[in-house]
Write a structure and sequence with these properties.
Layout (H helix, E strand, L loop, with lengths): L1 E5 L14 H18 L20 E5 L15 E7 L3 H25 L9 E5 L12 H32 L8
Antiparallel strand pairs: 1-3, 1-4, 2-3
Helix pairs in contact: 1-2
Length: 179
């Protein structure tokens, strides 16, 4: 999910002026830094890395995307990328709501602390409006399928092993001598 920082009185980043863009990027960076310092955000090795891919299974990250290269950083968009992972979709939504609220409050606090009237605040807009939460965990149907496959595999191996052992015992059956 992305949080867009929009110029006061504008509906979107697209309708904003190019002159205001560097200030919006700087402001987004300040908000990101404050949120990261105050909370328990995970710092990712790069702005293109994912939390889940980095091995994190519970937590969040908030980054200002770097559109540059490894030798020249470039922060060209007034956007904060937010990623959340957790044990359940409900917890992910709850953490995401908390992070979004923290960003809003931090942005308002910074602007209010400098005497900016509320009508002149830089707006923070989520994109997409309704966050997408993907459950990568198991489902009841998935667990049932796995149990059936393991059971069938076990039965197959048992039947195969029994037939091989029976053939081996029959082929090498000792001949008893009766006096």
């Amino acid at each position: 999910m992305e949080l867009l920082f929009v110029e006061p009185g504008r509906g979107s980043v697209v309708s904003g002026s190019d002159a205001a863009l560097p200030s919006l990027v700087d402001f987004a960076g300040i908000v990101q830094q404050r949120i990261s310092e105050e909370g328990s955000a995970v710092e990712l090795p790069s702005s293109t890395a994912t939390l889940y891919g980095s091995g994190v299974r519970n937590g969040y990250s908030i980054t200002l995307p770097n559109t540059g290269t490894q030798w020249a950083v470039s922060f060209s968009r007034p956007v904060l990328a937010v990623q959340v992972v957790g044990p359940s979709p409900q917890q992910v939504r709850q953490t995401l709501d908390q992070v979004m609220t923290s960003v809003e409050l931090e942005a308002q606090g910074l602007q209010g602390g400098k005497g900016v009237p509320p009508g002149g605040y830089i707006q923070v807009t989520p994109s997409p409006a309704a966050p997408v939460v993907v459950d990568l965990g198991s489902t009841k149907l998935g667990r049932t399928k796995a149990t059936l496959v393991i059971g069938l595999l076990g039965l197959t191996l048992t039947a195969f092993s029994a037939s091989r052992i029976d053939r081996w015992l029959t082929a090498y059956k000792p001949r008893w001598r009766h006096p």
